[in-house]
Amino acid sequence: MKKLSARRRHPLAAVVVLLLALAATGGLYAAFAPAGKAQADETSQSLTIKEGQKLYSVGCASCHGTGGQGTSDGPSLVGVGAAAVDFQVGTGRMPASSSQMAQIPAKKPIYTQAQIDQLAAYVASLGAGPNVPTKEQYSKEGADIARGGELFRTNCAQCHNFTGKGGALTKGKYAPSLEDVAPKHIYEAMQTGPQNMPSFPDTTMTEKNKKDIIAYLNAVNSSETENPGGLELGGLGPVSEGLFAWIFGLGALIAVAVWVAARTAKAKKS
């Protein structure tokens, strides 16, 4: 008993007790801490990436390379981010039917949204890039439509026309119409700059600016929006308006001139 009492009074006894208490506390925390959910999320993300890699190997690797490094038929995908994949595949532009076209058009997607998410997760794992925007980022709630119109006319109208009807570019390229395009895809296009379009990252155009532009496009292309200017001639701007003026305006002038000449000739004969 004396020996046991001496051991208890040993200077290191308190340290040993403290270490044992800390070890027990750590063990209990590890046993009951909510690490299961985090581990499950990580496992789910890993499975998503693996499924995306399988889809990529079948549908994308022949042009973009087995590791996304790019080939002579397709650019590198390292660092393009999930947003670029969601846009290109979600609008049906990818997979492309040919890499030799001047511009790859939108078409019906061949992948489901779940498969697109898997592809996006795999490509995002190759290198950091823009993420797929949340609904809050492109929702029209809280957006300034007037400000969006100013931003669109300043940055986008040169190619897409002031109401987003699209327009021709050079060498067979064109700015596509923005009618019936999902707000998410418009946001992603601004983020990533697909094909001939420049990119507008948050450092150049803020999230709020993008949201305002999307709200403006939604307003001008809505079937409920009345056009105070009358007949819009397709909304294509000065090209269609100039053509209308030449064909109908000049045609009317020629018709009047012919009528006047015929009347004058008839009057001289009589």
From TrEMBL:
PROSITE patterns in alphabetical order: CYTC, TAT
Top-level taxonomy: Bacteria, Bacillati, Actinomycetota, Actinomycetes, Kitasatosporales
Cell membrane as UniProt keyword: yes
UniProt cross-references to Gene3D superfamilies, sorted A to Z: Cytochrome c-like domain
PTM summary: Binds 2 heme c groups covalently per subunit.
Top-level EC class: translocase
Subunit structure and binding partners: The cytochrome bc1 complex is composed of a cytochrome b (QcrB), the Rieske iron-sulfur protein (QcrA) and a diheme cytochrome c (QcrC) subunit.
Ranges annotated as spanning the membrane: 243-262
Signal peptide span: 1-30
Reactions that this protein is recorded to catalyse: a quinol + 2 Fe(III)-[cytochrome c](out) = a quinone + 2 Fe(II)-[cytochrome c](out) + 2 H(+)(out)
Superkingdom per UniProt: Bacteria
One MF term in the entry's GO annotations: quinol-cytochrome-c reductase activity
Domain Cytochrome c: 47-127, 143-221
Species this protein is from: Streptomyces bauhiniae
Localisation per UniProt entry: Cell membrane
Keywords: Cell membrane, Electron transport, Heme, Iron, Membrane, Metal-binding, Repeat, Respiratory chain, Signal, Translocase, Transmembrane, Transmembrane helix, Transport
Its membrane topology: Multi-pass membrane protein
Entry protein name: Cytochrome bc1 complex cytochrome c subunit
Record EC number: 7.1.1.8
Main location (coarse class): membrane
A cellular component term, taken from the record's GO annotations: plasma membrane
Amino acids binding heme c 2: 156, 159-160
Recorded coiled-coil stretches: none
Binding site residues for heme c 1: 60, 63-64
